[in-house]
Structure formats: C-alpha cells, structure tokens
Amino acid sequence: MTVAQRQSGRGRPTATRPDLPLARRLSPSGTIGPLVVFAGGPLLLLILAFIHLTLGQADVSVSDVVRAIFDPQGRGTDNIVRYVRMPRLAIGVVAGGALGIAGVLFQSITRNPLASPSTLGISSGAYLAMVVSTVFFPGLLGLSPVAIAFSGGTAAAILAYAIAGGVRTTPVKLALAGVAVSLVCAALTGALQLLYENETAGLFFWGSGSLAENGWGGTQYAWPRVLAGVVVALFLARALDVLALGDDVAHSLGQRVRLIRTVGLLTGVFLAAVAVSVVGPIGFVGLIIPHLVRLMGLSSHRAIMLGTAIWAAAFLIGADVVSRVIAGDISEVPAGGVTALLGAPFFVWLARRVDTTRASGQPPTRRRMLRLTPSRHLPFGVVIAGAVLLLCLTIAAGVAIGDLRFGPTTTVETLTGGGTSLSQRIILDLRLPRVLVAALAGAALAVSGTLLQGVVRNPLAGPEIVGVTSGAGLFALIVLVLFPGLPLGIVPVAAFVGACAAFAIVYAASWRGGITSTRLALVGIAISAFCAAGINLLVVEAGLRVAQALVWISGSTYARSWDDLRTILPWVIVLFPVAWVVARYLDFLALGDDPARGLGLAIERVRVISMATGVALAAIAVSVVGTIGFVGLIGPHTARLVLGEQQRHRNLVVGAALFGAILLVIADTVGRAALAPKEIPSGLVTAVIGAPYFLWLLWRNRSV
Amino acid sequence: MLNRTMAIVLVLLLLVVAACGDDDDDNGGDDQQPTATEQTSGSEPSATESSDEATAGDDASDDATEADDGSATADDSASTPADAATSESTEPESSGDSGTRTVEHALGSLEIEGVPQTIVVLEWTYAEDLLALGVQPAGVADVEGYNTWVNVEPALADDVVDIGTRQEPSLESIAALEPDLIIGVQFRHEPIYDQLSAIAPTLLFNPYPEDRSITQLDEMEQTFMAIATAVDREDEGQQVLDDMHAHFEDAKEQIRAANIDDDGDEFSLAQAFTSEDTPQIRMFTDNSMAVQIFEAIGLENEWDGEWDAFGFNTVGIEALTEVDDDFFFYVAQDDDNPFEGAWADNPVWLDLDFVQDDEVFPLGGDTWLFGGPLSAELIVDKVVAALAG
Known about the structure:
The complex is a heterodimer.
Chain A: H1 2-10, H2 21-26, H3 32-54, H4 62-70, H5 76-110, H6 122-136, H7 138-143, H8 145-164, H9 171-195, H10 217-243, H11 247-252, H12 257-279, H13 285-295, H14 301-327, H15 335-358, H16 380-400, H17 408-415, H18 421-456, H19 468-482, H20 490-510, H21 517-540, H22 546-554, H23 562-589, H24 593-598, H25 603-625, H26 631-643, H27 649-673, H28 682-700
Chain B: H1 2-30, H2 47-66, H3 71-79, E1 100-105, E2 108-113, E3 119-121, H4 124-132, E4 139-140, H5 143-149, E5 161-162, H6 171-177, E6 181-185, H7 186-189, H8 193-199, E7 202-205, H9 216-230, H10 234-258, E8 266-275, E9 278-284, H11 289-296, E10 300-301, E11 312-315, E12 327-331, H12 347-351, H13 353-356, E13 360-362, H14 373-388
Parallel strand pairs in B: 3-4, 3-6, 4-5, 6-7, 8-10, 8-12, 12-13
Antiparallel strand pairs in B: 1-2, 8-9, 9-11
Helix pairs in contact in B: 2-3, 2-10, 2-14, 9-10, 9-11, 10-14
C-alpha cells in the first residue's frame, strides 16, 4: 500500500476526492508528470502531426512537406499538403481534443472512471441520429448536423442513465447500460445502412469513424463549436475542482451543484456530438486519455482538461498514422478501428483496477436480477404449454409462409409425405431445415444468455456482451479475409474456436485471485470492442469476400440446410440437459458469493461449468447462423417477464429456450416473406424487433 | 415434478426434430433430377440476329457521341426491345439431338444434356451473356438493378422473374421456376452451391481470377463461351466474340485516325462514389476487364497500382496526382459525382493537369465496367465518342 501512503501524505484537498480513487492511487508525486503532459504532449503532437503530413497516396517528399508548410507557392505538392493532408490533420486534432475534454467532463461529473462518450452510448446515439436523418430527413441534416447528433447523443445518455438507475448508479452498472444502449444504436444503424444501402457504396466503414476529409469544410464547421465547448468546460473547471470534494462540501462552499452538473454534462454531449458529426463515432479516445493525464499527477481540472486535449489529439493523430501505415498506398483504414484496438486493452486494465478499488460497490446480496412490479404470473406449466404451442404455430407458419404461399392443406399434406414435387422441394428441402435451424439456434442463444446472466448476476450479460459473439465474428472474418484459400467449411469451425478463445481471454483477464462478475462483464465489453474493431478493419480489406462477410456479420438463417441442422443438433442435445442440471446451482449463486459458499456450493466449479456450457451453446449457434444479436439477451428476459422474477433458473432455462426459438423463427419468417423475393438477413430482423423491445425491458426493469 | 415432465417433453421434441431431419433428407435425394426438357418450340437460330445487334451497337455509338451522360443509350434500350431478339428467342432451338456437353466452371465440370430451356441467372454479367446469345433467362436476380446499371441490347423481357438479391437470391423463387440450368458467381454463391444444385444443374464462374496470368477479359471470353456451350450456341457465341474483336479494331482505327496524340495514348480509368460522406475513387488496374478493353483499342493504362483480384484500388484524391498528365475517364452516377460535387472546388483537383487541359471524360453512370461482350462494346463506343467524336 505504498501508493496509498504516498497519496495520503500529500495532503492536498484533491487527494481525498472520493470519485477518482484510481488516479489517486497511481499518480506519481512530484512535478515530472505535469512536465511530461505539458512539454512532452505538445512535442509528441508536433512530431506525430509532421509524420501524419508525410503520409498519403501521392508522392510527396519530406522536404516538399516542409516547403508546403513554410513556403507555399501553389505547387502541386503544396496543394496536396495544404488542401488534403492538413484538413485531415486539423480535423483529427479538433475531434480528438473535443472527445478528450468530453471524457474529462463525464468522468468528473458522474464520478465514474468508466464514463466516456463511447461507453455512455453517446457516440453511437449521435451517429444513429445522423444515419436516421440521412435516410429519412436529408434536408434536416444539411441544416445542422451537430443539432441532430446532439439530440441523438443526449437521448442515448439519458437512456443509459435511466437504465442504470439514475445519476447515483455505480460505474459498472452505468458502463453496462451504456454498452447496451450502444449495442441497440449500432444494431439499428447497421440495419438502416443495409436496408438503404446505396448500390455504389457497397463497402462502408461499418460505423467506425474515419478522418478522411474533402477539404477544409469539416474543420471550418467544427472548430468554432469545439472552441465554444472548450471555453465553457474551462469555465466550469474551478467548480469541478470544488465538486470533487463531495456534494456537501460543494454546497457549503456555495456551489450550485445541480446547475454545474447539468451544464457540464450538456457541454460534454455537445463536444462529443460535434466530433461525431465530422468524423463519425471514434471510440476510446475520451475514455483512456483523461485517465492517462490524471495518472501523470495532474489534479486541477483546468490542467487536466488542457493536458487531455493535447494528448487526445496526439492519440487520435497517432492512431491515424498507424491506420495509414497499415493501409499502405491504397485504400483507407478507419482510424476509429485503430483507437479501439489500442484502447480496448487499456479498458481491460482499467476494469481490473476499478474493480479492486470499488469492488464493494455492488454486493449482490439479493437474488433479484431485475425488479419487476409484482404481478400475477401464470403457473409454469401453463406458460410452457403455451410457449410450446406458440413455437409449433410459428414453425408451422414459417413453413407455410414465404415467397410462395401454400394453403394449410398442401402444407400438411407435404409434411405428411404427400404434396406436389414443388411443394415438397420448397417446404421440405428449403423451409423446414432453416426454420428448425433458426429454432435451435435461437434456443441455444437464449439458454446461453440465461446461464451467463445467472453467472454474472447482471441482466445485461449475454453472449453479445461477454465477447463470445464478436470473438466468433472476428475469427470467421480472419479465415474469410486473410486465408481465402481455405475451404468455406472452415468458417463455422473458426467461429466456434473464436467464440471459445474470446471467452477464454475474457475469463483469464478477469482472473485476479478469483472472478468477480462485474469484472468479467467489463473485461467482456473491452474484448468485444476489440473484436468489433478487428472486424471493422478486416471488412475494409475483405476484397472478393466482402459481401459474404457483411452478410455473415449481420447474421442470417438464409439457405440453412439439413446439414446445418445436423451440425447444431448434437450439441443442443448434449448441452441443454447440462444447462438444465447446472441451472439449479445458479439459484444458490444468485444469493451472492458468500452465502452460496456458506451453503457449501463449489462456486468456481459452478461458474466454470455454467459458463463453458453457455459459451459452447452460443458458439455453436453463431457458427451456424452468424452473429445474430439480441436473442441471447431477450430470450431470458422474456422468460422472466412471463414466468416471474423469482423463478428458478431451471424453469428459466426451459422458458428462455422456447422464447429464443420463437423469436428467431419469427425473424426468419419475416425476413423471407416481408420483401420477397428479397431476403432480409434475420440478424437485422432480430435487431429491429429486438432492440426496441430490449430497451423497453431495460426501461421497465430500471433500478430506482 | 413439472420440471421433469418438461424435460421429457423437450427431449421428445428434439427426437422428433432429429427424425424429421433424416426422413426429409431422403426426399431431397429423390428429387434431385431436373425435369426433362419438354418444350420443343421451333424458333430460328439467332446467329444473324446477334450480328445484327452488333451493328445496332455501332449505330448506338453515334448516338453516344452526342450524349454526355449516357442517356442516349438508356433511351435506346427502352425503345428497342420490340425489334431486338427478345421474346422470339426465349426458347432456343429444339434440342433432341444435341447430346451431352461438358462445361467447365469454377467448381469443376458439369455435364449438360439437351438444351436448357429455363435458365435462372444470379449475376448480371451472365444475364447479359445470355442475351447476347439470343436467349432470354427465365429468372434474374435484382432485375431492377440490372436495368439501372447494365444498359445493353437486347433488354431483358418484361416477363423475366425477379428472384431476389444477387447475394441472397430466393431459393424458393428459383425452385418455383423449375429451371434446368442455374448460372451464378463463385464469390457470392459458393456457400449455397449444394442447395442450388439440388434444384438444377448449376454453373458458378469466377470473373475475378486470383491467377494473375489470366486477365479479366480472357476470363470473360472463356465464361461467355462456356455459357454458349451450355445453351448449345457455340457458333453464335464465337460470332459475338468475333464481332467484339472487330469492334475493338474499328475503334482502334478511329482513335488513331482522330490523331489525338499530342499527349500520347495514356489514360487512367476510375469509378467514383461517395461513402460515409467521403468520396472514394476506384482506380482500375491492368488486370481489370475495363483496362484490358481500353488497351485493346490502343490505349495504355497509366495507373500502376497493386494487383487486386477485383481489378481496382480504392484511393483518395491524392492518388490522382500520380496519373494527371494523361486522359482521365471515369464512371460516376449523376447524383453522386464527387468530381462535380465535393471536389469540384478543391485546389488539388483544379490543379491536376488533365483538369487544366480539359482531358476529363465522364463515361456516364450506366456504363457497366464488369459486364460481358455487349458491355465491352458499349465501353469502347463511349471512349471513341470521347476521344474521336
């Protein structure tokens, strides 16, 4: 505890801030830190900026760059440097600074070290608003992109807070809620982009921000707005210093706490919105840079903000330098992907720190996962009977409905061995297998979600959040893109391996003499973000297989055959009973670690078995149908909603399996029939149905 | 208690599912043979018609001279389907005696018996190939897209069935047409090859060979002839290719005659569009079909990019400075043309030599750079119109 001793010896008021234990514990004493921040930062930024200017597709030598900067004569190289490269540099500096200061504001005001534009869902909310506006109200976007991005970002932030249980929530809860909101926004954005895809723009950056610029327009638009935001932020800096002493102290010192908070948050959202409106959603800049600057020992907010602005700009420019080097002479790699690749490991590290300093923040003493208004629930048997009936009905509908319609008689005749050769071919060879694959994959995902939620003791856990889904996606794309020579049959295998590997990494990185569920969730978020960034980068390089890759990522039950059913069926037959058996012990785990131990439960063994089962189920489902989202989140929640909060896990597993199956079968049928003969990938349908439903569930279950 | 019963029910359900799986697979096996060709309607062989079309293509080139944006060709295709070989040639000549032919494709070789009457095409290029051979397909993926992007004659007949997107065509719609041949493209349809083959014999081609010794133009000709073999029209196919080469020679002569040659005969070719607010340029590389066609009419590609299977590098505006002392041809949609929009006032663009010398030639948004022989002739016509018109 030498660090703690050191910081307690410093005796400055800021050292006792309750909100930033991480920085407090780690900051080196003395003046080296500030020197590094304020002398090293600008120097680093200058060097990176110069390197940045020398990189590009045209042949411009270093001396050309120097001449273009200091002695422009209208030469060709001068124009390139001044009208192509400098705008790109400038937008990077402006956006980086804006994101960094937004991060400082969020972290200080919410007293949450995990807060940032990306973790609160603000960036993806702002981006969604812009995409919605592009598609439906193009005129509005021309009027004021920032206003649209701002309203989207604000809505996302409010939503994240509401879901997490208000301003006083714990960091981890807020981070999970923010990720959930991001997930929903990203799913809707992806759906819109796929459905309204401009034929020519087949290859888009899938929502990672990029610094590519057409000229000075973006910078001219952004800098006065960012400057205004920064001025307000600096104006608030003093007040934030006082606020850091605690609300009561701040009150007694005459601060108008509520006003400062509101203005600060709005400024943060505004800055993030400006950045998103010019460069798209670039993640992690606003999360990690404020921490790094605080680690250097800065304590006054004015210094932290200025330092963060410089370093965030340097970080973003550095990321763009890396992306240009990766891209080589041709093509464009989004800088947002690089920031996520660099930032995600830092987030893992942060998650480990946060957990130790604030682990006590979330004692899971009650077995309640969600707080539902107590209402009368139907008996388990009735619900299950109803769900089985509903599943049979949806399967029957899925078999009967499609491009061609068959009447009930033909359908029944075909299923019982009669029918025409056409109806046999379509119903038996095409529809039945894919509907059944959808049912099994949906059930597998939902059971996986139930187990993971039970282990992590958080209703937001699911295969999407603990890294399983994106790990599978990353490995599938690695095979598709980097090893095009391999047969396509390898892709599902790679997906399976990727899912397991991602989760193994999450588990290992969360291990510090044991696993806590919160740490697991946070590390899962980071690894998911890392894999998602990798997927983005690979999509850009996908070449011939890009169309296939995009469809695979969005998840699809298209053309699934009896072979696919044969792949998934044995796993389901083996793992469902395991899940059912192990679910019993999750009831004890839900009491909390200590009570469960007290009851003689081998906690670690239960955890490992449940998670391995859950991961294997999700992995097999994803390997067969691609990264279909939301089923693993919604299945268990629907089961709880219908069966009641206090339901045993065993019953939840059964209910979730049925509801997950129903959901994916409906998604498959809608995807086939809605725009026939055009197919809508079922992953998009689950996103469009699932995202709002998921939000509604979260809203309903929000903590007080 | 309840739990236990539920578990039993669940296991039973799974067993039922498993049982279904096996049963129906047997059914699938029985069904695999395509129905024998019954139609033997006598329509005349269309060798003469296709050469007529080639001439019609020549005529169109005159129109294209006046057209800056390709609208003339669009009009043509709208007005001519009546006189071009369309509905007449929907059913190729009677098969009876043509025996078995072997067609090589990307996934192996396929024995085709008789003359396929009902053909489903999953990629536009091959629909164009069939039309050039005087055969109307029964179903085509994304008919609307075809009509927007590929403007050659003869056009698709009105009764061609749309069978969904090119990436995920509706297997049900295909099966409902009861085709006897399906033609697709490897990079999209390889994962569903088994399902397609269960419906009808399926040919998948790869227009973007990874073998660097084969150019896309060679591949296009090979595939065109493979399709001609598949529909038993090899003579007509050879005629179309001969016409195409003759067309190239003509164009070469016209360009030489026009004596444009102060700047040499070097060019670069781009496709431009906007993605995520950022203009993107695809510069075509030597192995691309479009560049091969340009070179066949005596021009020389100046873009020296990394080899790419698709045949283009995606770049930003900076890259244009590498090729700016040559002719610059590009394809962009009228409503998304970065060279007249986002970049129009950028000093880098304005300073490029080909902009200053007025050597920038838009080919129009409906010039399909990835098509078959007819699209190739259209490209040539547009280039001739630009340089020698």
